[in-house]
Amino acid sequence: MDLCHVPTTREKGWYLALMAPNVKGRNYAWLDPSRLYCHPQGLQDCVGDLLQPFQGDPIDMVAGIDPMGFILGAAAAAVLQKSFLAIRKAGHLCVQTLAQPYTDYSGREKVMEVCTDAISPGLRILLVDQRVETRGTMRAAIQLVERLGGVVAGIAAVCIEDSEGGRWIREHYKCAHCVPPILQPRFDRHQ
């Protein structure tokens, strides 16, 4: 992996080629973004593409979804000069939490948590994750924000699949993702 190489022309999504395919089986995401996050220009361009549709929008806080949304979410919060909130899998927060059960992309039942005093009514929150596939994880994060009185200002992910879950997210919230239309069918079919 060459962490110094930057293509001469950098079109939206050029950095997606840095992502490595899954070699461990169906209980893992089909692409791993670790190499993308290790590439300084790739990460910078990815975050820029995610935030571009929200320029000028009122955003008070960025929330990243456990675990990969932490990296992109924290980077987006730094660029926006906003606070960052970690929405965690159950059992990792040692403070008062609000919990939301959900089913993840692999069909496993899980619980997501957020600290109860982090979101005040009316706070506008940009939710960030690596991927929206079935909408289970993102829907749980949305429900946590809204149950605490927050407003989902938008949803940003490296990929929002053209699936039932992805279409539901796009129909109900302002969204941004990094996959150019010409590559979307490959990401939808996990190729």
TrEMBL record:
| Highest rank taxon of the organism | Eukaryota
Q: Note the SUPFAM superfamilies from the entry.
A: PRTase-like
Question: Where does it reside?
Answer: Cytoplasm
Keyword set includes Ribosomal protein? no
**Which keywords annotate this record?**
Cytoplasm, Glycosyltransferase, Purine salvage, Transferase
Query: Gene symbol?
Result: Apt1
* Listed GO MF terms: adenine phosphoribosyltransferase activity
- Biological process, per Gene Ontology: purine ribonucleoside salvage
Q: Which CDD domains match?
A: PRTases_typeI (cd06223)
Gene source species: Rynchops niger
Quote a single Gene Ontology cellular component term. Answer: cytoplasm
Kindly report the protein's main subcellular placement as a broad class. Answer: cytoplasm
EC number(s) reported in the record: 2.4.2.7
Please report which protein family the annotation says this sequence is part of: Belongs to the purine/pyrimidine phosphoribosyltransferase family.
Q: Which InterPro entries match?
A: Adenine_PRTase (IPR050120), PRTase-like (IPR029057), PRTase_dom (IPR000836)
Its recorded reaction(s) are: AMP + diphosphate = 5-phospho-alpha-D-ribose 1-diphosphate + adenine
Q: In which pathway does it act?
A: Purine metabolism; AMP biosynthesis via salvage pathway; AMP from adenine: step 1/1
What's the name of the protein? adenine phosphoribosyltransferase
How would you summarize the oligomeric state and partners of this protein? Homodimer.
Query: What enzyme class is recorded for this protein?
Result: transferase
